[in-house]
Amino acid sequence: IFKKGLDKDRQERALELYSKGKLSLGAASKFANMYLGEFLELMREYGLESNLTLEDVKEGSKNLNKIWKK
Fold first, then answer.
1. pLDDT digits (tens, 9 = 90+) for 3-24
2. Number of Cβ within a 10 Å radius of residue 2
């Protein structure tokens, strides 16, 4: 029960830091000890939206393609 409370506190802190622009999406999910998809779901549950732009997604896709081609 204690660990669950700590995990929840850490997740809420990560949401706060992300929403204030202090952490990137990836850094916030790591801070919360969550996979990115889980963190995005947590954001949805709290009514927060990602600040990712279409350009961010395109750049991430390009980077993944570079990695996969190696």
1. 567 889 999 999 999 999 899 8
2. 6
**Range 34-64 burial, b when 16+ CB lie within 10 A, else e:** beeeebbebbeeeeeeeeeeeeeeeeeeeee
Degrees (nearest 5) of the Cα angle 10, 17, 4? 10
Tens digits of residue pLDDT in 35-49: 988 999 999 999 998
The answer to whether residues 29 and 35 touch, using CB atoms and an 8 Å cutoff, is: yes
The amino acid at residue 51 is N
C-alpha distance across the termini of the chain, in Å: 44
